[in-house]
UniProtKB/TrEMBL annotation:
<feature type="region of interest" description="Disordered">
    <location>
        <begin position="326"/>
        <end position="370"/>
    </location>
</feature>
<keyword id="KW-0813">Transport</keyword>
<feature type="compositionally biased region" description="Basic and acidic residues">
    <location>
        <begin position="358"/>
        <end position="370"/>
    </location>
</feature>
<keyword id="KW-0677">Repeat</keyword>
<feature type="compositionally biased region" description="Low complexity">
    <location>
        <begin position="340"/>
        <end position="352"/>
    </location>
</feature>
<dbReference type="InterPro" id="IPR017839">
    <property type="entry name" value="DMSO_Rdtase_II_Fe-S_su"/>
</dbReference>
<keyword id="KW-0004">4Fe-4S</keyword>
<keyword id="KW-0249">Electron transport</keyword>
<feature type="domain" description="4Fe-4S ferredoxin-type">
    <location>
        <begin position="124"/>
        <end position="155"/>
    </location>
</feature>
<keyword id="KW-0003">3Fe-4S</keyword>
<dbReference type="InterPro" id="IPR017896">
    <property type="entry name" value="4Fe4S_Fe-S-bd"/>
</dbReference>
<keyword id="KW-0479">Metal-binding</keyword>
<protein>
    <submittedName>
        <fullName>Respiratory nitrate reductase subunit beta</fullName>
    </submittedName>
</protein>
<keyword id="KW-0411">Iron-sulfur</keyword>
<feature type="domain" description="4Fe-4S ferredoxin-type">
    <location>
        <begin position="6"/>
        <end position="35"/>
    </location>
</feature>
<feature type="domain" description="4Fe-4S ferredoxin-type">
    <location>
        <begin position="157"/>
        <end position="186"/>
    </location>
</feature>
<keyword id="KW-0408">Iron</keyword>
Length: 370
């Protein structure tokens, strides 16, 4: 049991699906050989198949405390990294060639159903669902690993894989019901989101949250009453875990999306939301009903000019307040980092800087001599 639990809340009302978080994570962590297909952070369109494709039907997790069998996703399920014919298009000298992935036989990429959504015009709808490893309180991956290569940090609850101990058995992939563990076929080890723990240790928030232009992601400790996470999850109860029925107690939470009303055959708005509440319940549980009511009530209060702590938090006027105790700039953290002894060089002697002297007009005519 960890002493504290770091957690994340994502406000789905503000996610625009720009994938900046995905790029920030990919650039920082998954650039080694064998990681080409890995996207530790994904943003998929809902309703949709997600990444890996159809992960919600792949099993794993717990039911009544008993581990459930699960399916091991393949690289094709996650979606391969595509190779494009840029050289041929731009330098091949053939005007008729168009840009194509893998010669036109690209299969399904990780975001193959982007912006498709559900419903029929004029009531079609979709929203974006960002996902990372949930760093669960009861991680199925940890229990499934016969090598004890997976651990949960005592100081902040981040779940990590020790790649020196991992032998690539991949039971963790089968056990994780969210299917957020990848397999590196080159290095023959399992790999996943590490919640940017080197940054967290230095008081810097995760790359995905810091780079998000929509101010979607909040980071902090689950038990910090002064921080945003505790207020969303425990005080206002508007942030809910994804598929809590999987039994792993995930520590990534979502503020469910509000939606405009459905339109009837005459073109008039109805009392029904365009995104079916039943669908949101299938993702986030029955707490969706109260969460949506709270969001609507506080939004109306804000419209009337009344004070609303919840709306102030969600609007996030002060960007750094979104990150609880992890507000330090990465640059400042790097400056305070001790230099490894084998990289230390003798400091160059400091040059003595002469004081600025102002000459009289006569001294200047003599070439600066008194």
């Amino acid at each position: 049991m960890s002493k504290r639990q770091v957690a994340m809340v994502m406000d789905l009302n503000k996610c625009i699906g720009c994938q900046t978080c995905t790029v920030a994570c990919k650039t920082l962590w998954t650039r080694r050989e064998g990681m080409e297909h890995m996207l530790w952070n994904t943003v998929n369109t809902q309703p949709g198949a997600g990444t890996p494709h159809g992960f919600e039907s792949m099993g794993g997790g717990f039911r009544d405390g008993v581990a459930q069998p699960g399916q091991r996703p393949s690289v094709e399920d996650f979606g391969k990294a595509w190779n494009f014919n840029h050289e041929e298009v731009f330098f091949g000298g053939k005007g008729e060639i168009s840009l194509a992935a893998d010669g036109g036989k690209h299969g399904k990429g990780p975001n193959w159903d982007e912006d498709q959504g559900g419903g029929e015009f004029p009531n079609s709808h979709y929203f974006y669902l960002p996902r990372i490893c949930n760093h669960c309180t009861h991680p199925a991956c940890l229990e499934a690993c016969p090598r004890k290569a997976i651990s949960k940090r005592e100081d902040n609850g981040i779940v990590l894989i020790d790649e020196d101990r991992c032998k690539g058995y991949r039971f963790c992939q089968e056990a994780c019901p969210y299917k957020k563990i990848y397999y590196n076929e080159v290095e023959e080890v399992s790999q996943k989101c590490i919640f940017c723990f080197p940054r967290i240790d230095e008081g810097v928030t995760t790359a995905c949250s810091r780079q998000c232009p929509g101010r979607v992601r909040f980071v902090g400790y689950l038990d910090d009453p002064e921080g945003p996470i505790w207020k969303f999850v425990t005080k206002h109860k508007v942030a809910l875990p994804l598929h809590a029925e999987y039994g792993t107690q995930p520590n990534v939470f979502y503020v469910p999306p509000l939606s405009p009303p459905k339109i009837d055959d005459e073109g008039n708005p109805t009392d029904e939301p365009r995104i079916p509440t039943e669908y949101l319940v299938s993702l986030f549980g029955n707490g969706v009903h109260d969460a949506l009511k709270t969001l609507e009530r506080e939004r109306e209060r804000n419209k009337r000019g009344e004070k609303s702590e919840l709306m102030d938090l969600l609007i996030a006027r002060k960007w750094l307040d979104m990150f609880g105790p992890f507000q330090k700039h990465p640059r400042d953290a790097a400056r305070n980092r001790p230099i490894p002894q084998n990289q230390q060089k003798p400091r160059a002697p400091q040059q003595q800087v002469s004081e600025i002297r102002f000459y009289t007009k006569e001294e200047f005519k003599k070439g600066g001599r008194a």
